[in-house]
Amino acid sequence: MNDLSPGGEAPDPRLGAALRFATELVAWVAAPWALWSHSVVLALVSVVVLIGLPTLLSTPGDKASAIVPVPGWVVILLVLLQFAAAAVASWFAWPPVVAVLVWVLVVAAVVAQGPRWRWLAGNPGTARS
């Protein structure tokens, strides 16, 4: 059991985690795809931001280990950035029918994130001894 907060570890039901991962995966593909024809540098930066930042920054108790511990609100903003990237970039990268499906995925992922985001919002992001 984790003693970071009265709630222990972040609640992250399998469905919520699966929808979040699927949406992140869409963002990781759609953003560079949409940006590539405009700027190769921006496309590569999008990959670094969308994959690198969430890998480095995490709230203790949310993942098995936190490389750089941050408050929960930072993790929420990073997830929202990925969701927004998926939703917006899909319209520029793929046909409209695919973009609509991505929007449905994003909405479902946002709804499923409620318990985790409530936990993250109340987490200061620092480990206690």
UniProtKB/TrEMBL annotation:
Keyword terms, alphabetized: Membrane, Transmembrane, Transmembrane helix
Highest taxon of source: Bacteria
Residues passing through the membrane, by range: 35-57, 64-85, 91-112
Protein name from the UniProt record: Uncharacterized protein
Lineage, uppermost ranks: Bacteria, Bacillati, Actinomycetota, Actinomycetes, Streptosporangiales
